[in-house]
């Protein structure tokens, strides 16, 4: 069942139409974060190879923090008078990206693919921040804080992919499969 994003009430200082715009932005962020934490757990369960333990242990704190980010986003939408759709069906129906495509694989291959995932999430988040900026500083601030953390997580991933010369082994790969392949070659 589709939910209307324009609430019947909202926080002081915003109109219900403004809140509705923010709720729509936050809903897509919620989908992205829910998808990301599931993708991170998938990687956590399916890494193999000599870097297994390093990557396995690096991923769990990211999962926990991304889950907390999703909770923060859903609670902000509720404060604005909205309803957050957190079901798998709602996520799949609304998302504009494909499922994570790497199964059981070398830890470095997963990190190559995860770098592409983080790039997509971060680029979309920057667009959401730009939209929120026009309406509400509190929502914008929430998203900016999440951006900082996600960029740090991507830095952790990229540290495993960086060469001594300062470039990424994945180069300009734009797909998870291509990045995974380049990361291990």
As a percent range, the share of strand residues is under 5%
Shape, principal axes of CA atoms: elongated
The number of helical elements comes to 6
Mean pLDDT: 96
Tell me the series of helices and strands, N- to C-terminal.
Answer: HEHHEHHH
Note poorly predicted spans: none
Distance from first to last alpha carbon: 46 Å
Neighbour order of strands in the largest sheet? 1-2
Would you count the extended β strands for me?
A: 2
Query: Radius of gyration in whole Å, from Cα?
Result: 18 Å
Major beta sheet summary: 2 strands, parallel
**Helical content class:** 55-70%
> Which secondary-structure class do the elements indicate?
mainly alpha
Assembly form of the protein: single chain
Please render the helix and strand layout as text.
Layout: H1 16-46, E1 47-48, H2 52-79, H3 88-94, E2 105-106, H4 107-133, H5 137-161, H6 176-184
Characterization of this structure:
The chain has 185 residues and is an all-alpha fold. It is 69% helix and 2% strand. The protein has a two-stranded parallel ribbon with strand order 1-2. Helix 2 runs antiparallel to helix 5 (137-161) and helix 4 runs antiparallel to helix 5 (137-161). The longest helix is centred in the N-terminal third of the chain and has 31 residues, at 16-46. The radius of gyration is 18 Å and the shape is elongated. The chain starts with 15 loop residues before the first helix and ends with a helix. 37% of the residues are buried. The mean pLDDT is 96.
């Amino acid at each position: 069942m589709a939910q209307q994003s324009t609430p019947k009430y909202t926080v002081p200082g915003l109109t219900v139409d403004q809140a509705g715009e923010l709720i729509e932005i936050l809903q897509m962020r919620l989908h992205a974060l829910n998808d990301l934490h599931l993708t991170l757990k998938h990687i956590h369960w399916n890494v193999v190879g000599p870097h297994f333990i390093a990557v396995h242990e690096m991923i769990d704190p990211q999962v926990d923090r991304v889950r907390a980010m999703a909770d923060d986003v859903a609670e902000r939408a509720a404060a604005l008078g909205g309803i957050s759709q957190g079901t798998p069906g709602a996520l799949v129906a609304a998302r504009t990206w494909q499922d994570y495509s790497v199964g059981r694989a070398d830890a470095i291959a997963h990190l190559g693919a995860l770098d592409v995932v983080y790039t997509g999430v971060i680029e979309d988040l920057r667009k959401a921040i730009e939209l929120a900026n026009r309406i509400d500083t509190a929502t914008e601030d929430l998203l900016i804080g999440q951006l900082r953390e996600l960029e740090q997580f991507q830095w952790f991933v990229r540290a495993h992919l960086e060469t001594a010369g300062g470039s990424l082994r994945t180069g300009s790969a734009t797909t998870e499969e291509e990045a995974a392949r380049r990361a291990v070659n």
